[in-house]
Design goal:
Length: about 300
């Protein structure tokens, strides 16, 4: 838990009309500078260029005013972008992360600058006790819990299944899948009609990906979890959905792939021939948490620039 330590050197983006920003993204170099980080899930502050996690032209309309959200992996990448979008919509935030303290403090500073209350909760979600502690700390700080967003993940790179060790396989599922069960069980007694659980799957769950076999399998499990829990909780009015991004410019990408492959991630996307930026994914999480999606459950929203067409 942290009280923050002042403003960092946060990236700033000029206020463009939305489509001008999209156009700017399209004319970025097809390939980013080759880079790789050895540690997963990676550090956003080390990336070049930094991911775009906020679109300044996005004006919130109090869609989530008075609600409290737990966001795992909210320190960076897609989770950070979701935290920013939720802050603009009036939510209070509990951000769970492993030990990426600098990224987490940057996110806290940024969302508090938008007027949101933000609680940082470092911890290892592979341990079920972390989920119980996360929920209790959130209740102690805010008195309620309305939204659970699962973004934390690892994505090991392997040439073939023979390279997937028993230890790696267990770690991938214990990181990517087990916390959905742990957190849902811890949160469920405190959720109510209108609450939302939103998980992060991937296009790899639908297309497959030969270099991240165990990751893709874990993301397929998240699709099944989403559809099953949606049926299980429908009578309580609790909605369970997921988002499936395509290749995104996030720390997980540069900590997974070799430098040259990370540099061209997403360049096969029909729309823009580039990776999706986190700020472009975040509105899906807003929609799935807000009252506008009151009759939407068991669904997966695909944000991939046209790479796949499966549902």
């Amino acid at each position: 838990m942290s009280d923050g330590c002042g403003k960092k050197n946060m990236p700033s983006y000029p206020v463009y009309p939305f489509w001008d920003l999209i156009k700017q993204a399209k004319i970025q170099p097809v390939a980013f500078p080759p880079q790789h980080q050895d540690r997963q899930p990676g550090l956003e502050w080390m990336m070049n260029p930094r991911p775009i996690f906020d679109y300044p032209g996005y004006r919130g309309s109090e869609k989530l005013k008075g609600r409290v959200a737990i966001i795992t992996g909210g320190d960076s990448g897609i989770g950070r972008a979701v935290a920013v979008a939720y802050a603009k919509e009036g939510a209070s935030l509990a951000i769970v992360y492993l030990n990426e303290h600098r990224d987490a403090e940057e996110t806290k500073d940024y969302v508090e600058g938008l007027g949101a209350h933000c609680l940082l909760l470092p911890g290892d979600l592979r341990d079920p006790a972390t989920s119980c502690r996360t929920v209790q700390c959130t209740l102690d700080a805010f008195g309620q819990l309305d939204i659970l967003v699962n973004c934390a993940a690892v994505q090991p790179y392997t040439e073939n299944i023979m390279d997937v060790s028993d230890e790696q396989l267990e770690n991938t599922f214990r990181t990517n899948v087990f916390p959905l069960f742990y957190l849902t069980k811890a949160a469920l007694p405190h959720l109510r009609c209108g609450s939302a659980i939103i998980s992060t799957t991937s296009r790899t769950a639908y297309e497959g990906e030969p270099k991240v076999i165990d990751y893709a399998a874990s993301k397929g499990a998240i699709v099944s979890f989403t559809r099953t829990m949606a049926l299980s909780l429908a009578d309580q009015g609790i909605r369970v959905n997921a988002v499936a991004p395509g290749p995104a410019w996030t720390p997980l990408t540069v900590s997974t792939y070799p430098p040259k492959q990370a540099a061209v991630a997403g360049t096969d996307a029909p729309m823009g021939h580039r990776p999706v930026q986190p700020f472009e994914i975040a509105p899906s999480y807003v929609y799935l948490a807000a009252d506008e999606s009151a009759f939407v459950t068991g669904q997966v929203l695909h944000v991939n620039g046209g790479l796949i067409r499966y549902s």
